[in-house]
Design a protein that fits this description.
Structural class: alpha/beta
Radius of gyration: 39 Å
Helix content: 40-55%
Number of helices: 14
Strand order of the largest sheet: 2-1-3-6-7
Order of helices and strands: EHEHEEEHEHEHEEHHHHEEEHHHHEHEE
Distance between the termini: 75 Å
CATH superfamily of the largest domain: Response regulator
Largest sheet: 5 strands, parallel
Shape: rod-shaped
Number of strands: 15
CATH class of the largest domain: Alpha Beta
């Protein structure tokens, strides 16, 4: 027993021609066949043909040049004015010179002379036009999807000129495509352009991701998560880059608010330890010292125990003050980051008995948020090196390089595993 073989859906073909003899001939070429490749329909008039083209229910349209008082070229021009693009094959037997070029300019996919084409030529032209129409519909769908995504998606060529600019880019950067396309990327999105200038534009399909601050056309600052893909697909020269960027400003600001809240809570706890606990420990130490002095005069054996207890309280007070300074680095607010770092390395050297130094050139006054972040980074790195890596020497350096701050922390410890380099999110 044979198993039925599933066949593909027949291509729907519409003939727009006022001559019944042409329909009979083409039907004989495309009519019922074992493969069922084509399904032919027919309309006679310009008006019916225009309506069918607007509906777009067929895969390929065979359009005769002569349609009564009208012409197939006028039909193509009409649907183009409507913003439509259909897979049309122009047919003619009129012997009009240069009609093939005129048909192509009007949007026809192919041109066939009725007096010369064969069944094989007609079938080949229909297959080509149907496939081209399918590809163009797919590209049109992808372009429509791309145009309506919320992310900014645009193309920068090898010269740094913007070649495409979707609706998402218009919304994020506040700049219409009419002004962005053809513009220098360093003027429109300087942060991204600067990042590109440091990358080698090779033929490798590399993906680069980073976060950075940029600005809208009106000057408003925005935080972006950016992905760069270097294109190698022809046509086009090497060095083109597709940029995808989404606005993470609200997310970054929320993270900053949470960070600020945590920092404020740390300051409160540090202040409470300094103002309350440390004062109570200091008072208890003074009280024990007074009792110890009285007992020592009476040669009591308890004076040594009280002296040891007083030493413990004094050590606890010193430790509490160190914790308070770590939670609430008052020098950071009063004297600035360099002085706060000096105090941090001095305290580390004293507490852990290791060499800890800081070096740095004169720095400009930094925003409080930036200073706090850098201090916390140094605090965490120094603590890890001193506690866990068995380091005997820790060196910190903070210097300016152009418009950037470079903060380097080195130690001679055993290390804590190999990290993966990355790029920080924008903050502040």
């Amino acid at each position: 027993m044979s198993t039925p073989v599933a066949t593909a859906t027949p291509a729907k073909i519409l003939l727009i021609d006022d001559d019944e003899d042409d329909f009979v001939l083409i039907e004989s070429y495309l009519g019922p066949s074992p493969d069922g490749e084509f399904q032919l329909s027919w309309v006679r008039t310009f008006e019916d043909g225009l309506q069918a083209l607007r509906q777009g229910e067929h895969d390929v349209y065979l359009v005769d040049y002569q349609l009564g008082a009208e012409s197939g070229l006028r039909l193509l021009e009409q649907i183009r004015e409507d913003g439509l693009h259909r897979p049309v094959i122009m047919l003619t037997g009129a012997g009009v010179s240069d009609l093939d070029q005129a048909a192509m300019r009007a949007g026809a996919f192919d041109y066939l002379d009725k007096s010369a084409y064969s069944e094989a030529a007609l079938r080949r032209s229909i297959r080509y036009s149907a496939e081209r129409g399918r590809i163009e519909r797919q590209l049109q769908l992808q372009a429509e999807i791309l145009a309506n995504v919320h992310d900014a998606v645009f193309l920068i060529d090898e010269s740094g000129v913007i070649q495409s600019w979707n609706v998402g880019a218009e919304q994020i950067f506040g700049l219409p495509a009419s002004r962005a396309i053809g513009a220098d990327a360093t003027k429109v999105c300087p942060t991204i352009a600067r990042h590109l200038s440091g990358k080698k534009r090779s033929r490798a399909r590399t993906l680069t991701e980073f976060s950075a601050w940029s600005q809208k056309a009106c000057g408003e600052k925005i935080a972006l998560a950016v992905r760069l893909r270097f294109l190698t697909t022809p046509p086009g020269p090497e060095g083109r880059v597709i940029v995808c960027a989404n606005d993470i400003t609200q997310e970054v600001r929320l993270e900053q608010q949470l960070s600020d809240a945590a920092e404020a809570e740390q300051r409160r706890i540090g202040q409470d330890i300094h103002d309350d606990l440390c004062q109570q420990l200091a008072g208890a130490g003074c009280f024990l010292k007074a009792i110890e002095q009285r007992l020592s005069k009476s040669e009591s054996t308890q004076s040594e125990a009280l002296e040891a207890l007083g030493s413990l309280i004094s050590d606890a007070n010193a430790r509490a003050r160190d914790i308070a300074r770590g939670l609430f680095p008052s020098l950071l607010q009063l004297e600035g980051l360099p002085v706060a770092l000096e105090e941090l390395v001095d305290r580390t050297s004293r507490n852990f008995g290791i060499s800890c130094t800081v070096h740095g050139a004169d720095l400009p006054k930094l925003a409080e948020t930036t200073s706090v972040h850098l201090y916390r980074i140094a605090q965490e790195a120094v603590s890890n090196a001193a506690r866990h890596s068995k380091a005997k020497r820790i060196d910190l350096s903070l210097n300016r390089e152009g418009d950037q701050l470079v903060f380097v922390i080195r130690d001679d410890g055993m290390g804590m595993g190999v990290g993966v380099p990355g790029e920080a999110r924008p903050s502040g």
